[in-house]
Structures are given as structure tokens and as C-alpha cells.
Amino acid sequence: MKSVLALLFLLNSASAFSTSQQRRVERVKLQKINRELIVSPSVAKANFLHLQQDIDAVVSAGAPWLHLSVQDGYFVPKVSFGSPVVSALRKQYPDTILDCKLGTINPERRVQEFVKAGADIISVHPEATLQLPAVINDIAASGCSPGVVLNPGTPVSLIEPILEDVDVVVVMLVNPGHGGKKYLKQAIDKIQAIQRFASDNDIPLPHISVDGGVSASNSAALIDAGANVLVAGGSVFKSDDKEAVISDLLHGGSETVTISSGRNDFA
Questions:
Q1: Whole-model pTM?
Q2: Residue ranges in the chain modelled with pLDDT below 70
Q3: Phi and psi of 189, rounded to 5°?
Q4: Domain 2-251 carries which CATH code?
């Protein structure tokens, strides 16, 4: 009898999880259609000694998404974190969209791991796999929103064959794991090229996310070009007034904010 009850509990839990995930993914798709402006704070820039405190602060400040940049030390030279962090965040923040970017070699080997952990969006680099269409299909078939990442040196033409199949395109302003120089003009050119291709081919425009050194000093130019998701790390997590920074990002403002020290320095 106990085993039967345990099985029923697991089935009900799985059903509840899949229903809640479905609602979150439907929200991602609706936000895409409505071209909502979204700030997705990058968890890699949080203070890992006070991770829940930092995440609580950005969620309370109005961030509907959290960006998780997974780096394997091979495709991206640094190592960040893996699926256990995603799983912990999923349990603690059931209504927040978890926006996972897999900077890993052969991401097809990792997709199901992050699906099970509770990711809502899974984006992959086209250079990291020989099976890009299959990976995108696997992500979508698993109930998540698929995405693709464009590094500064990656041309838009590389993702044109699968553009209609993704919900998110992440345009990098920096080379992942390196930081340094920001390729703002190239990013703007890519944003505009994505929009032209979608319009010319009569396909839905995906979320256009920008990542790497995004701040209030460049957010207006990125939004004007057509970006609607701003992945911001240090500019949000290092601020003592996260709500003001998020508002600044969305409006391209220049409010003065206080910066705290003692944070991570992942690029």
C-alpha cells in the first residue's frame, strides 16, 4: 500500500511540475509575441556566499527571468556551475523563468540533464555541435523553449536554417569566458539582420537577447536596434538599488546607483 501511495505521489508531483513548466514556457512564448522588454540577471555575477539573498533581491526588484550561463571549461575556458544550481533555483523560485545558456561541447549530451533540473529556456552554441537542428528539436520536444547563441565572430547566416524553430537568439557582446572588448556595433548589426531575415521569410521573430557587458549606458541602443531581453550581471547584482538599475536598463536611463564590492568576476 505504501509503495502504491508513493508511486501516486511521484506521478502527481511530476504532473504538477510539467504543468507549471508548461505555463512558464507558454509565458516565454507570449512574451516573445508581445515583444516584452525583459531583464534577465546573470546569476554568474551573484555573490555565491549569499546566493539566495542576491536572487531574492533581483526577483523582488522585478526580474521575471534569471540567466544561467553554464560553462564547461572546454568550449568556454572558465567553469561556472551545473544542473544542481538550476535544480535548487527551480525549487526556490517556481514562477521565475530559468534562462539557461549551455556553453558546453556537445550540448546534446546535456540537454536532458537541464530539462530535468527545471530549465525553461535552453540555448546552445551552433559551433559546439554537429547536430544543431536535432538539438533544437530535442529541447522543444522536452517542453522547453529552444535558443541559439551568436558569439561575436558567429555570422547570422549560420543560424538562418533553424531560426523559425527557436524562441530565443542570444547575441553576445563579448566572447564567452573572456570579457574585455565589447562588440556593440557588430551586435546591433546582427540584431537588425535577424529581424530582416525573419521579416523577409515571414517567420516569427524570436526573443532577441543581448549578453555581455549590458548596462544602462548601452541598453537604449540595443533596445532601439530590436533587442528585447537584456542579460545583465554586474550592473544588477553589484548595485545596492537593484530596482533602480532594472528600471534604468529598460529605459536607457542614467540614475546614479551605489555599487557594492566583493562579488564574483565571471565574464
A1: 0.87
A2: 1-17, 177-181, 253-267
A3: -60, -40
A4: 3.20.20.70
